[in-house]
UniProtKB/TrEMBL annotation:
It comes from the Bacteria. Gene3D superfamilies: Cytochrome P450. GO terms for molecular function: heme binding; iron ion binding; monooxygenase activity; oxidoreductase activity, acting on paired donors, with incorporation or reduction of molecular oxygen. Its cofactor is heme. Signal peptide: none annotated. Pfam families: p450. This is Putative cytochrome P450.
Amino acid sequence: MDADLPEYPFPQPTALDPPPEWERLRTGCPVAEIRLASGDQALLLTRYADVRQVLSDPRFSRQLDADGAARVTAQESGGVFGTEQNSISSAGAAHQRWRRLVGRYFTAKRMAAMQPRIAAMANQLIDDMLTRTEADLVSAYAFPIPVWVICDLLGVPDSDRDRFAYWSDTMLSLTRYTQKEIDEGQLEFGEYLWSHIEAKRANPGEDLISDLVGMDDDELTPLELIGTAQGLLIAGHETTANMIGKMVAMLLADRSRWERLRAGYRTEPDLVRTAVEEALRFDANPGFGMPRYITEEIEVSGVKLAAGSTVINSMAAANRDETAFDAAAELDLTRSPNPHLAFGAGPHSCIGQALARTELQIALTALLDRIPGLRLAGPAADLPRREGLMIGGLERVMVTGFHD
């Protein structure tokens, strides 16, 4: 192993600023050798065209437990890129079948029908914040909204949200948890979900799990059912909860951004939507990126990549690529079109992206409506970053200005 390889993920100057390595690698070394938390070597892609190519090419496999694949985490096994998650069919017709079955719950029509209830939840949480002079936006607002939504969708009690958060974090661990903690967390998570699945089989409700276990001719296997529920619970609350906190922090870090939204969001119908999309593109703290395993030799950016290599796609670095976005280093609230890669690309793009967009837009609109004077309670440079996990985020976003 080359001891001089840069360690990945790269450190950030602050929780909202990108690592300087992104720009340097995009311009000078688009296929870069890196060392992962496991000590294994991988290749990092940072250019927009390259990342989109790889995420759309079936020769780049999600089977990260293949012989010779780089271990992503500091532990021997586990996590969101381990074999349990790969129990969800990962390629070809089987994967398309899975997306067809699950995707019925994430249509634009269903998302529109959910909007009033999500807005009511957001306003209820704001009512509570308005009784204080200062609050942590993450725990008081950003976390409860998507947890409630995904629990309602799956038919599981949101009163168990703290357990979901812990189990999710163990599965997303890069360096935060020990192998013993990860194994125990995954076992508990799987047992909890299987008990829930069996209860739904006996007494079905109006939720996604009940629908999936109630299909006579096209039922998912037990491992697929558990993997689906795990994946949706993790993606449905971890990523969106973190993004709500980061989005609001980005907008408040430069007060002109928040004031621009305040001035125009009621008269410019698309402004909240384009602001959300730009926050997704501009996010400098999204986490690890998307790993892929190469099943046969292929060329990327003029470099031949050998079969058996592991490639890490940095969607966030790609979203700052000046060849794909004008003034890519600037946050433009009206940017359109905005073909960012925050939700991935190709056949494995995020199945819940319509739900995430709905939650982000409603969460932002409710804050603009109810707390127009919202501001950070301290310097943006001091915002604490979540460490040791696959998914980036902020531990806390202390805010005030509730009665300005």
